[in-house]
Amino acid sequence: MSQNGVFTVLTEVFVMSIFGSLAGKTLSELLKVGDPAPDAASVDRDGKIVWRDLCASTKEQAADILKVVAACNRGAPLAVPIQRSIIDSWNARPAGLGHPDRRDDMIEFSPGNLRVPRWTRPVYMVAAGFSDFRKRYPEKKLEELCMMAFRMLLEENDLKLDPLEVKGLINFASYGEFADHFQDQLLCEAKVHDYLGLDLLPNVGVKTGGATGGSAMLVGATTVASGMSDCTLVLGWERMDEVRTWTGNYYIATAACKDFETRLARNYASYYAPMARRFQEMYHVDERVRAEIAVKNRQNACSSPFAQQPGRHTVDEVLAGDIVSDPLRFLECCAMSVGSAATLLCSEEVARRLTDKPVQLYIAGGSHTLRTGDRRPMRIPLLPHETEEGYRWLYDEMKKHDGRWPGFESFAAARFAAYMVYRMAGIQNPIEDLDLVETHDAFTISDLQTYGDVGLTLYGREQEFVTSGDCYLKNPKTGKPGRCPANLSGGLLGTMHAVGATGIFQCGEVLWQLQGKYDQFHGDPKLWARYGKKKPADWMSLQVKDPRRGLAISHAGVGSHVTCTVLEKA
Amino acid sequence: MRKISVPKIAPSKIDVAGDAWILHVPRLGKEGTHFHTYGQLTPYFQELARGRLMATRCVNKKCPVSRGKGPKWLPPRADCPDCHQPMSWAQIEDPRGYIYAYTYVERGGTGLEIPCPYYQIDVKIAGVCTIMKSYLVGKGPVKIGDKVRARFRTRAAATHTCLDLYWELE
């Protein structure tokens, strides 16, 4: 891709040269017409032209572009933002915010910074495996838990080769572990790698806090995308039961700024709680919305044999619970967790050899400062379905409350990752194009905040994803399927947050949903028995009907690192 | 709502190396102490102990963002993230601000020096581009928008940590 391709989008010259002469032309003909930005259009698997990064400098030009797009294919974008280019959009001054004559309080991007990742070849995911997850797991050593996940990955995913033949295809391993001090063991990666019998293959250990699992997926994907590997194991773990819970909380809080913030809580919930306070007051959110997220995800965990704290709670029960850090209650916070998760990433050729149900994977990341208050304000970078006009009311609200974006309300790293991965995967409107999502619900508030970042709702309207009922498998308001069920796995609140494994676990759950294997991996009584549990008599399948695409969001710090993974049935 | 008084906190030991303060952070007894340097941010902690709040700002005219007229940063930074040149120190006189966000911490992790419960507050200060996390002493309850003014733990009461700055409602 030429660098210009990212930000020099459909120029006026291009629009005028193709307008009126485009109907019926193929994409290759279209691209010859004006030699536009190569990324402005691409063809998806159904032959539909996917438009991206369209923008115009006037309303009239935007209308012309819409006509052109409508004339040449079936997939018109919902809107064309009025701006000269993508880079202008990212760097524009928030209306009425900041200093009108200075640019000294916001992040600025150069065009090169906003290059959409383009892999050399596609990446596929074919298998996943987990241990079960527990708050304490004295029965097994860490390496033994990793072996449980690895064995399930090799032996129980209906792969077309024998488990040891599959193992014989592996070229590389990407490992996720959050914190050396929990395990009190440096280079755990070498111990696990040896234990799995993968010596002398190369491996890397990845550490990005709560997003460690997602980042291990990102690193693993790039080894396949680049051609370094045809088959990469991504495996993560955490063992948080060597210390007492409140010492564990201190360990986690060393992921706050040591000089200026750690001593102000030594408990990570206390860094999310001010965001919860500000979010609920700015966006007029009833506490019951947050509580409902805890109830939903813990309820979903009741269907999972892997889950560490399934429960049938009520909103009143959540709100009546003890407070950790106001306004967050205990049932709104995830728990210390022990366990492992693994996935297998492959080239297309290997994927087809291994399974008839491969899933294509796209992943991108973003990062932002560890100190919430150090986030400099900027204009909201728009996703394909959003418009400047659509956020005018929000900017007006911000002026009233000294607000800013991302402020304490949102996660710019999540928006950046979503912005990139949606362009990689051709997602035009997340709530329409995605059939399920796994969010990082370490706290109810981080779950709620992220809906806006990844475009499931507009910013400021995040609670509507819950109140509409669209986040449920079956919408309780309409009785119809929810538009984009969230955390059917039980999420971090209900099932697990063995940190280094979490982002990998989320991708595994989405994979099985897309393969139609939810019941196979959650409903088999033998699996429940393997973990010393009995399958509940009222067990419910949470399989989404014929899902095509899913999203998994892995998140660290107070939004310091985020990865967004789009998985799509191949 | 009970009144929260200034917590009694034992001062941390410090070493001096040139201009820098090195904070002792005991982990595994005397032999297992971490020696953590404040580096070029040492003046911030030195001045807190004298009752002064110091920030940094970019004064590099060639900085593409600040153009030499940067706002103050708190916490301070020795180097500008936009032009990578050294920032300058600037005192915030009679520091006042308002509560931008807050939480009432009921449970803290192991080793927390401030007795629970207490208010952790994020303070917005005019002329400062960041919003600084700190804590409140005095009477609650508080709400977003409440005005606060800075107080300091000075001289013998100084801990040589970020806890030497706290705030009271105006």
Largest sheet of chain A: 9 strands, mixed
Q: Which two chains have the most extensive interface, and how many residues on each?
A: A-B, 48 and 43 residues
The percent of residues in helical segments of chain A reads 25-40%
CATH superfamily annotation of the domain at 278-293 and 364-486 and 499-569 in chain A = Thiolase/Chalcone synthase
What's the N-to-C terminus distance of chain B?
Answer: 17 Å
* Structural class assignment of chain A: alpha+beta
Number of helices, where a helix is a run of at least 4 consecutive DSSP H or I residues of chain B: 1
Strand order in space, largest sheet of chain B = 10-9-8-12-13
How large a portion of the residues of chain A is in β-strands, by DSSP E?
Answer: 5-15%
Q: Rounded to an integer, what's the Rg of chain B over CA atoms? A: 17 Å
First-to-last CA distance of chain A: 24 Å
Strand portion of chain B: 35-45%
What does this structure look like?
The complex is a heterodimer of chains A (about 575) and B (about 170). Chain A has about 575 residues and is an alpha+beta fold. Helices cover about 35% and strands about 15% of the residues of chain A. Chain A has helices at about 5, 10-20, 25-35, 60-70, 85-90, 140-155, 165, 180-185, 190-195, 210-225, 245-255, 270-280, 285-300, 315-320, 350-355, 390-400, 410-425, 430-435, 445-455, 465, 490-495, 500-515, 520, 525-530, and strands at about 40-45, 50, 125-130, 170-175, 205, 230-240, 325, 330, 340-345, 360-365, 435-440, 550-555, 560-570. In chain A, strands 5-4-6-9-3-10-13-12-11 form a nine-stranded mixed sheet, sandwiched between helices. Chain A has a two-stranded antiparallel ribbon with strand order 1-2. A two-stranded antiparallel sheet of chain A has the order 7-8. In chain A, helix 10 packs across helix 22. Residues about 1-40, about 75-85 and about 95-100 of chain A have low confidence and may be disordered. Chain B has one domain (about 5-170). Chain B is globular and about 50 Å long. The mean pLDDT of chain B is about 95. Classes of the chains: A alpha+beta (about 575), B mainly beta (about 170). The interface between A and B is large, with 48 and 43 residues.
